[in-house]
Amino acid sequence: MTGLGIGLIGTGYMGKCHALAWNAVAPVFGDVAPPRLVHLAEANAELATRQARSLGFSRATGDWRDLIADPDVDVVSITTPNPFHPEMAIAALEAGKHVWCEKPMAPAFADAERMADAARTSGRVAVLGYNYIQNPLLRHIGKLLAEGAIGTVHSVRMEMDEDFMADPVALFSLKSEAISGYGAPDDFGVHPLSILATLFGPVERIMADLAKPFATRPTAEGKAREVETFDIAHILLRLAGGIAGSIQLSRSTWGRKGRLVLQIFGSAGTIAYDQERMNEFQLFTREGRAAEQGFRTILTAPIHPPYDKFVPAPGHGLGFNDLKIIEAREVMRAISGETAHIIDFENGLAIERAVHAMAHSHRDGRWVSL
Prior knowledge:
Elements: E1 5-9, H1 13-29, E2 36-41, H2 45-55, E3 59-61, H3 64-69, E4 75-78, H4 85-94, E5 98-101, H5 109-122, E6 126-128, H6 136-146, E7 153-161, H7 184-187, H8 190-200, E8 203-211, E9 216-218, E10 224-226, E11 232-239, E12 244-250, E13 259-266, E14 269-274, E15 280-285, E16 296-299, H9 320-335, H10 345-364, E17 368-369
Parallel strand pairs: 1-2, 1-4, 2-3, 4-5, 5-6, 7-12
Antiparallel strand pairs: 7-13, 8-11, 8-17, 9-10, 11-12, 13-14, 14-15, 15-16
């Protein structure tokens, strides 16, 4: 059986993650033909050639359109900056390629709609890079919720904090420019939304307050430039079934590196998870005598598939790139017509709609229905 032909556009951090995932998916899972790393595209031919040699791709180009026209490419991984996603994804779909595109879909909602339309029309698989939902423990949390382990869920709280924008004298960059989107809501706020969508379904109503902790940032030329995006967001939500929710986002919290906190409160217990400790979660249930009740820590183990494909012993842990390998396998399931644990362009559009509703709510100072 011949493996899928892979094309990769962009070789920054996420591009390398995709390349590692495509290389590892067959030896890790053992039930698929190894993908063929066919074609790599970068901003210029010299960089593309160097990166293709490093990452193991057969061909290289400085023009991404050449990659999409390559008949040996079956799947296009798109890991470029957000503004480039629409043109590249739509062109790939129109050329009959499957697409694995990093999130978010696009800075403009109209472009995200065009991407979803192109996916529907093409009939090809179009997946967004939400690898956090692939964590075996988050999958197990979903199973616990379905089994009613904490009773009826009435509220959910999420927080996502990092400190890469915490320094007020850090130089102005694309992340502070409106062309990249709104800032925290779509830069990484889509990750909490992807987890909520996976566990509870779509957001029904939303209210948001967005903030800029620093009005200007210095440029490389030593001038002050006005910050056009929001680094902080406080969001209230109503989820399917009337579940009350909240999300707090900040790109400017010193000391927080990859904090993504999920707390789920039910009529009979609580589940708590923090991605900075991504191989464990806490479970409280009303069992036994009140004097001994408390949270239990559950560590990832082979009993939480597909952890068993990586490590044969409990408590050793998986990492970010392992989740990307799991996601690559799910992309392959979708392409094979199997049920897959993914967020496709159709479901991703609902996440994009929620992001834009945050901006509209902040602007108008009111709840927005989705």
